[in-house]
Structures are given as C-alpha cells and as structure tokens.
Amino acid sequence: MVLMIRYSYLQFAQSRVKLRLHPRVQFLRKSTSESKQVINTNFDLPQFVSVTHMKRHFNKKNINYVDGFTCLSLDCSYCGLKNSTIFINKTSGYFLCNTCKKSGSWNTLESVLGYPEKLISLPVDESISSGKDKWSRISKHIHPFTSLSERGKADLLKTILEFQNFPLTKLNCLDLHVDIKHNYIYIPLKNNDDIVGYKMITKDGEENTFPPNSACGIVTTKRSSKAAVIVHNIKDFLTLLLYNLSENIVCLPHGEQKLPQSILPLLENYDRLVLWLGSNTASWDSARVFARKLQSNRCFLVSPLEEQTSVYAAHLKKKDVLNIISTAPSVSHPSIITFNDIREDIAAELHNADKVSGVKWQRFPTLNTILKGHRRGELTILTGPTGSGKTTFMSEYSLDLAIQKVTTLWGSFEIRNQRLAKTMLQQMVCQPLEKNLTKFDSWADLFEQLPIYFMTFHGQQELTTVMEAVRHATYVHDVSHVIVDNVQFMLGLSSREAGFLDRFSRQDQLIGAFRNFATVYNCHVTLVIHPRKERDDEPLTANSIFGGAKASQEADNVLIIQNKTNQSSLKMKKYLQIAKNRFSGDLGMMSLDFNRNSLSFSNKEE
C-alpha cells in the first residue's frame, strides 16, 4: 500500500497535473540513477530578449522584418508560401508561424534562421495540436447549426443565449455546431483559418473553452477594418452582430481571465482596439492589463458603468452601443494622469461598490467581512510562529481564489512542489488522498484545470532571478496573484547582488521590489515572512515581522497566525489576526480549526 501511495503521488506530480510550471522552470523528471523523481535545477534560465538584440540579428543576417505593435514579423522560410509569416513577440521572444504553426523561444529561432532545413525539426505549438485533436474528436458527434430547421435554430438561441427573434443571417460568419442530444452549442476557435479549439455553451448558458488553459484561437468576423471591438464572451459577440459596426468583432478564448501571447499576432493588424470586457471592476482591471500587453497607445476601454456593464446589458437597456464604442476613452500614459483620466475609474467604483472590494473567498467568509475581498495591485504579508501552518493556510487561501479563476503563481522555496501540490489537491477534495486512490485520476483532472503555476526555485535564490521569473509569468500567463514562501530564502545571497547591505537592508530592498511590481503590474503579491524571536507567551504584532519596519509599512494587508494556549486545558488554539487592512481599515480575528483529513482550516470556521 505504501508503494502504491508513493507511486500515485509521484504520478500526480509529473504525469497528471504536470505542474504547469513557468517556462524558466523545468518539469519533474526521472533520475537516471534512481527510481525516484527529482527536480532538475541544472539548466539555463531563459530570459526576455531585447527587441534591439532581435533587430540587430535580423540586420546581420540581412533578413527583412516588420516592426509591429507587439511582434516583429518576417516571412517563414519553411512554409515558403506567400502569406506565411513568423511572428516574434517583442517582449518574450516567443515565435509562431501563422501557417505551419511552428513555434518556440527566441533562442531556438535564432539558431535556425537562415537554415530552412533546420526549421523542419521545430515543434508545432502544443496548445494548437491539443486544440485540433479536441475539435477532431468532438466534431464526430455534433452537427452543423445549418442542419436545424428555422424554428429549431430560433428556439436554441432563445433557450441557451436568451435572444428573441435573432436574425439568423447574422450567424453566417460563424461555423456554429450543435449537440442535439444535450442542447449544446459549439463555436470553433480559429488561428487564421485553422481550427485550434472551441467554445462550448451549455443549455444553461455556461461558456467553456477547450483547451481550457491555453487556447490559441479567437472567434471573429472578417471585415476589412483596421479597428476591432474585443469582448469576453459569445453572448456579447452575438449582440454586436445586431449592430452595423464598421469594426471587426473579436471574442477572446479565455474571457477576462487571460490573454495568451499566441493570440497577439491575430490582433497585430489593428490600429484601434476597443476592449469591452465585463460587468465589474475585475473586468476593468483585466482590460487595463490586456491593453498594456496589446500596446496601450492603440487601446480604448469601455468602463463597467451600471448602464453598460456588458454589451448585452447595454443592448437590453436600449443604450447607444455604437456611441459607447466610438467614445471609449484611450488608455493614458502610465506615468502621467489627470482627474479626467481616473474619472471613469471612480465612476466604475461607485457603480460597482460591492464588487470593487475584490474576489470573495468561499472557504473563509470571515475574511470577506474584514478584508472585503482579494484585490489586484496589493501587497499582503503573512507571518506566524514556526510550525503554525503558514504554508498550509496559504495553500488553501490561494486554492480558494484559484477555483474562482484567479490565476496564481506559487514560489515555494521551502516546500517541494510535489508536496505543495499534493496538499492543495487534498484541500480541494477535502478527503485524504491515501484512502481514495481510485478517485485520484478524476480529482487530478479537476485540479489540472485550475489556473495555478509553480516555480521550481528551491532554497536560496537571488532577487533578480526570481523577479525575472515573476515578470515573465505575469506577462505570458496573465498571473494576478503571486505567492512567495518565504522571503528569508532570498536574503542569504552573495555580495554580487546585495553589495555590502545587511540582511535587514536587503529585505527592505526586496519588499520595495515586490511593492513596485504589485503596483506597476496590477498584480496581488503575498509574501510569507518569519517573525522575529519573541517570548512564547506574547502575541505577535505587525512589529514582530522579521527585518525593519518597511514590510509592515509597505504592506496593504498584514495577516498573523497566532497560537493561544488555554492555561486550564493546555490545548492550543490558532487564530488568524488581520493586523492591517489598508482598503477598509477593518481589523479582527478569524478562528483556524485544522482538519487533518482534509488538511483544511476552513471546515470548522466559526
């Protein structure tokens, strides 16, 4: 039984969940000398390449290229076709051919440019291959929308998408399919003319995307326009079809959750992009993040005011949709603003007062009462005595948010990723894994769908190396929550990075770096920090955080796990103290009752 558990656990770590790691991080691999799994840390960390370096290389090789908004583009010598183009991301160096779908990193492309025969060995983007396979399998069991009767088409649109008397001729631009048995609608996602995935809309109107985390295609109209309106779901897309727009309409594969870099070449030819993403300030945040990724000087944002929370909502309220699109404000310069620039932000907050507070926890309702929610752009500090359960609590805290589609990047320098992921899986299902081995595969499949990424840094790491990984993941995967556990593993560094600073000064430098990152990238950062040595009978305070005062000063939220011993029964009780809350100012305590079967603090929350 022990061997079975160990094998199943390792299988989870590598085969099933695959620990979708940051590109700078290696997957778990089998050791050639041992049967156990090891983490390979002997590798070169790929870094963002500068645009200048890429241009110099092209000039040196006499290769013609076009400098676009987000990509450099050049003819694909492998395809040899007239319109085949390789797009190279100007930030990450990731490249993709729009015809043969060869893809990879800049380092790979740099080594084969000028040698067409070497391009043959380059791989096709894995997400594209996966999406094609999924569509090929599902298309055997579905039927073209055109095969339905006129009444059947109208009834389906009314039942699933709540459209009354939708003009069916407007759907000619879409290759709709239906599952007659289950009343599902299927819409293919295309990368140019290739189907690379699909959206499925259930009879309840729920929209799902396949592949679920990295679809490389969009749903779009094909008008000869240099402008496009970008929406996050099919209902808004279909609503815009009702209007005589001169702009193209684009529906993103993953809504407001993420914008894969493989999508950027499909939007490269547009001079004007209007982003109308959703119904709350989280959508507003995503729109601004996407605008930065798409090149903000061509982007215009529709704010989520009450009367225009979505295209569909504005249509139902008979608002002037065309005017809303044409008057959408541009994204301003990031360093210079006026009141007029933030006027829409303030109006959006007032109209969405209950949503401005952020994503609500489902497992910790007391946190919602005190902190109000989890918000982008903030810095949270978690501290507590050694062995108090900081990592266990933070894994469940972040899991709760990830289940609600908060894309999360975990940097665990103290706990191996296998152990961390196993803990999170057990917390997700609230049952001991060892006693439910037959359910492991189905549970792992569910966990694999969560937007969680892991860095394989372990032990002492340099700040510059970690920040490079974090910035890369934030750009490529649209990460909105970064967790570093714990900060002390980034302090015992060589003098090459730290100069002659002591550990306190280095920690202040680190806190400042993450504070700046959270603000600039509009990403929530949670840092786990050990406390200073205190007397066992004294409760910890915000001043107990190791290092100087900068940590508690810079933090928006300070969370402290407190151990309290009942003197009569000698039983220890844990509490989570919210010692600082910059958003609302509310402070308080939350009981933490640990359940060993589920490794959860939430089951018995008072």
TrEMBL record:
Single biological process term from Gene Ontology: mitochondrial DNA replication
Entry keywords, A to Z: ATP-binding, Helicase, Hydrolase, Isomerase, Lipid-binding, Membrane, Mitochondrion, Mitochondrion inner membrane, Mitochondrion nucleoid, Nucleotide-binding, Transit peptide
Top EC category: isomerase
GO cellular component: mitochondrial inner membrane; mitochondrial nucleoid
Record's keyword annotation contains Kinase: no
Catalytic activity: ATP + H2O = ADP + phosphate + H(+)
Keyword Flavoprotein included in the entry's annotation: no
Name of the protein: DNA 5'-3' helicase
Lineage, uppermost ranks: Eukaryota, Metazoa, Ecdysozoa, Arthropoda, Hexapoda
